[in-house]
Amino acid sequence: MALFPEMTVAENIGFSEVVGHGLRLVDYGRIRAIALEALAKLGVSLDVDAPLKEFPIAQRQIVAIARALVGEARVVFMDEPTASLTQSETDHLLDIVRNLSASGVAVVFVSHRLAEVLEISSRITVLRDGRLVGVYPAEGMTQSKITELMTGRTFEAKVRAAPRADRPVVIEVDGLSRPGQFSDISFKVHEGETLGITGLLGAGRTELAMTLFGMLKPAAGRIRLDGREVRFSSNRDAIDAGIAYLSEDRLSLGLIQAQSIVDNLVISSLARILSGGLISPGKKTSLVGKWVAELGVKIGKPEDAITTLSGGNQQRIAIAKWLATDPRLLILDAPTVGVDVGARAGIFDIVARLADSGLAIILISDEVPEVYFNADRILHMAQGRVVGSYDPRAYSLHDIEAAVYG
């Protein structure tokens, strides 16, 4: 999203309509009116006078979409417009796309979410490795067929849940609360267990994760790690205690885009590659080689910029960065945002291997199938509280989706 975090929502949406018109003074009233009109088309209400940096990534995505719809566009390209949206927001956006098409606007909708592609498209163009595979009518196509055309492989979704309650508890959360974000959250995660947390935007999932990682401070409640109560004053304390957190915002918080692959991978574990107080090139090369091989990352040279990698391989580097710290608990917040179906399957294969090795994992996603097929237990959060707990072996995907999406 090419947005300006320091500028207001209104400025982000309306600036392109007023810049370059030869005016010597900025008409902020007009910018504000343009923004309000664009958001009204989306049926969204935001404080247009607030800086964009104050909003979570999902609402920033809405701002980017609103800006694209400003003016009398005849063709609109939407590149992964729903990547950070909840199901209800996605449904609303798809309604907007239908209305745009009905009004004569041509829409090119780029997405890895195949259900949306089938729902919204008249024709489907499939690309693989930069080449055209073919163009097909949407009618009669299925997700499995598109996946096979995209990757040359077939993927079988199956429930991976297994009982883990007899294993030692890695983290125990008791009555954790933070006013305005989440309240009275309690759960345990055992060695080798993957706990899935799902819910709609505003459920408090990310805020909970950031609190466990020491980036936010709870107002009440306790966190125990390996049976010992911990209080983190910073994320460095959490890292030292054995907690790792993969942010949902890979571009801004997960990776340093201007740096190389190798520097991104070792940034969280510099102490492990020091020799005599200086970085050891040998230890650095060894650490990078280990995790690139372990996670199957496809790279050119380790010194290449991280931006030379695909979204899926960037995400693997972001995961490797945290695994190099040798954590006890790995928190994955929307780990498949912006990656294709093949890369998603690869990432969840990695998650399964990590769990089998004994790592405790918290998997956060607003896509219920992701937690359903890849978690041992699922917590449903809504409005800052846990409102449901599910064992994927005892409930159907439809049951849990109905509870989460209403």
CATH superfamily of the largest domain: P-loop containing nucleotide triphosphate hydrolases
The percent range for helix content is 25-40%
CATH class of the largest domain: Alpha Beta
Query: If helices are DSSP runs of H or I spanning 4 or more residues, what is the number of helices?
Result: 15
Looking at the chains present, what oligomeric state does this protein adopt? Answer: single chain
Q: How many structural units, i.e. domains? A: 2
Q: Strand order, main sheet: write it out.
A: 10-13-14-7-15-16
Radius of gyration: 22 Å
From the spread of the alpha carbons, the general shape counts as: globular
CATH architecture tag of the largest domain = 3-Layer(aba) Sandwich
In whole angstroms, how far apart are the ends?
29 Å
Q: Give the strand content.
A: 15-25%
Average of per-residue pLDDT values: 88
The number of E-state strands comes to 16
CATH topology of the largest domain: Rossmann fold
Query: What are the low-pLDDT stretches, counting only 5+ consecutive residues below 50?
Result: none
**Sheet having the most strands:** 6 strands, mixed
Judged by helices, strands and strand pairing, the structural class is alpha/beta
